[in-house]
Structures are given as structure tokens and as C-alpha cells.
What we know:
Blueprint: H1 2-19, E1 83-86, E2 91-94, E3 103-107, E4 112-114, E5 117-118, E6 124-128, E7 136-140, E8 144-147, E9 163-171, E10 174-178, E11 184-194, E12 198-206, E13 215-219, E14 223-233, E15 237-247, E16 251-262
Parallel strand pairs: 10-16
Antiparallel strand pairs: 1-4, 1-8, 2-3, 5-6, 6-7, 9-11, 11-14, 12-13, 12-15, 15-16
Amino acid sequence: MRMGRMIFLPAITLITLACSFEYIPPPQAVPSLEAVYTIAPTQDEEPLIIPTLTPLPPTATFSPAPPTSTRLPTRTPTPITPMLVSTDENLNCRAGPSVDWAIDGILPRGTWTGIYGQDASGEWYQIATPNFPGRYCYVAKALVKTSGNLRNLTVLPAPEALVTHLNVELLPTKVSVPCASLPYAFEVKVEITVNGPARVTFQRSFDDGNAEPPETVLLAASGKHVFKYPYQFNTTGSHWVLIELYAPNFRTSKDTATLSCTP
């Protein structure tokens, strides 16, 4: 009986609670009002035109070129011109690379000048002949002080000596002898001046139609060299001798003399 009473009491309690509440219906949604505005353009206003967006043309994209290696110019060293100066008193400048050559100029002491080359032995330097533009002469290496780059000096071939003066004389220039002593022998005097060691070839010819064969002489040093030859003339009158020099350069010289006789 106790169990049935306990079940009955909760049921009565639930029925009582159910009868004591008033039913309230759920709230209904109230529709909201939306204002609608109509803008009518006036007579003076123009309708608003919204511009359309025009896409811009695509811009070029800058693409840097790949770096290239720039070759910097190489610096060329300025060659130092070889120079020399006389360490002695005024220095002889010779036509060739030895004391056998004639003096062609004088280099004053303390004067610097350019070096244009050297001889095969390296003991003589070629320079411009002082006071004679366009000519060159040699100075001894032992008598100068140098500066600059001497390693690339040009080795010059031996110069060729020249005959600088030729003279012939028929001596005596005037002579009278007994006619019985004819023929008479004149002296033919030949003077040859060279500026250095030279091999000289020359020929003598005379007014009587005779010509000596060409002869060659070796002159070992510069300076004047004298040769004397006798030559006989059989007749009286004016006579001449001609010297023609063929080597190393061409020159001529002529002289006359007078021969007379008494019975």
C-alpha cells in the first residue's frame, strides 16, 4: 500500500502544476516597414551618367638585361725615351762608330739629347748631329751618362763612308824645258778625303787619249789621303788630267798645266 500511495502523489502533483499555468501564445513577428524613395529628376537636371571603367593597356614590364662584363682599357705604360748627356768636356760626335770616322759635330757638355740606336758592339750611340737637322752621328758610350729604357735600342748596321772631297793637280802648272829634253814628266797629285774607313775606286785619264786602268785603294780611316803619280807628255802646249771616282760615291776633278820648250 505504501508503494501505491507514493506513485499516486507525484501524479497528483503534476496535474496540479499543469492546471495552475496560463497558456501564453508565442510572439509573432511584426513586419518592418521599408521606406521607398523615388527621386524624379527635375527638368533642369541631367541624368547622372556613371562612367564605365575602361581598362588601361598593359604596361611594358621592364626586364633588366643580364649584366655584361665591360673590359676596362689596359693602361699602356709610357715608354721612357732613352737620353744621354756628355760627362766630359764638349764631346766629338763622329760620322761612324769609331775614332776612325771623321768628327761630324760637337755635343756640348751637359746637353741632353735623344738616342736613336747603337752599333753592333754596343759601344757607340747614334744621336742627331748637333746643329745639323736630319743628320746623325755617333758618340762613345764610355764618355756619356744615359737615362731611360736602353733595352730596345735598334742595332744599326755599319754606315758606309763617303768621299767628301776629291782634288787633282798637275804639277808644275807651267814649265819650260829644252826641247831636246822632251818628253817631260809632270807629277799628278790626287787628294781623296773620306769621312771614315772606305774602299775607293778611281781612274786617271789624260788629254793625249791615254787612260790608266781603274784602281781601288783601301783607306783605313777618315781624313785626307794623298797619291802621287808621274806622267809624261811628249808635246808642248796645254795638257790636262781628269780623275773620275766611282766608289763609294761618284766625284770628278780636273786640272791643267802648260808645257813649253826652248831650242
